[in-house]
Amino acid sequence: MQYKYIKQDKNYEDYSSGRVIYGYSGATNFPVRLTQEIFEKCINYLKKQNKAEPYNIYDPFCGVAYTFTILGLFYPEKIKDIFVSDINQESLNFAEKNLELLKCEGIDKRIKEIESLIKEYSKESHKEASKIDIVISDIPYGKLTNWQKDINSNPTQKFLDNIKSILAPKSIVAISLNKKQEISHIGYNKIGTFKIGKRKVLFLTPIN
Questions:
Q1: Nearest CA among 54, 53, 116 for reference residue 84
Q2: Number of domains in the chain
Q3: Measured distance CA(35)–CA(43) in Å, rounded
Q4: Per-residue pLDDT tens over the stretch 52-79
Q5: Exposure pattern of 50-74 as b/e (b: 16+ CB <10 Å)?
Q6: Is 164 part of any domain?
Q7: Residue span of the structural domain in which 153 resides
Q8: Is residue 9 part of a domain?
Q9: Nearest alpha-carbon partner for 58 in 38, 81, 89, 77
Q10: How many angstroms from the chain centroid is the CA of residue 173?
Q11: Which of 2, 33, 57, 143 could make a disulfide contact with 134, Cβ separation 3.0–4.6 Å?
Q12: CA neighbours closer than 13 Å in the CB half-sphere of residue 139
């Protein structure tokens, strides 16, 4: 993969999970440089749509919130509110600790944590929340992470169905998945993709 926005590969060792940022065994994380590249692509799209920063960002499968903690540290001026959720309570406990690190760095904003199952996105409390500009998430796959057992046979379609109601009219969804997986949805336009290792990142925009 050729990086378009983060062209220089720096030493991100100090940002590795388990150093300053909390982590635990079994949690999956985006590499720091890839996280920045994905976010830069998302904000570049929104700027072309004449949507000014700062943005509301959301990770439906946040794990320990490593990805959004990294974004908060690198892009505090570009982020308005951070929303995260996960079905694993242990992950959310670590996520809360990690997002608290952003407050210690002086980011003056509310950090909201939505502790809900995927199937409960349609609750009234979620409908009343601020609309989301950017969704970035690592879709569960492989041995480290799995979908909740009682979700239907097409969980990715269900996921895209459920987040559509919380997306702003001008918004973008970036999802990382196994490069063998294919995703299409009548409610979204595919605007780009890139592959890195065993993963690919797909960029979608909602059809309003």
A1: 116
A2: 1
A3: 12
A4: 999 999 999 998 999 999 999 999 999 9
A5: ebeeebbbbbbbbbbbbbbbbbbbb
A6: yes
A7: 30-206
A8: no
A9: 81
A10: 8
A11: 57
A12: 23
Tokens matching residue 133: 């500009």
User: What's CA 62's distance to the chain center, in Å?
Assistant: 7
Cis peptide before 54 (omega within 30 of 0): yes
DSSP alpha helix (H) spans, the chain: 32-48, 66-74, 89-104, 124-127, 155-164
Please indicate, yes or no, if residue 17 is contained in any of the structural domains.
Answer: no
In a domain, 25, yes or no: no
- CATH number, position 98: 3.40.50.150
pTM of the model: 0.82
Token couple for 191:
């605007």
**How many alpha carbons lie under 13 Å from residue 208 in its C-beta half-sphere?**
8
pLDDT, tens digit (0-9, with 9 covering 90-100), for 127-181 = 445 799 999 998 876 444 444 544 445 778 888 998 999 999 999 999 998 888 8
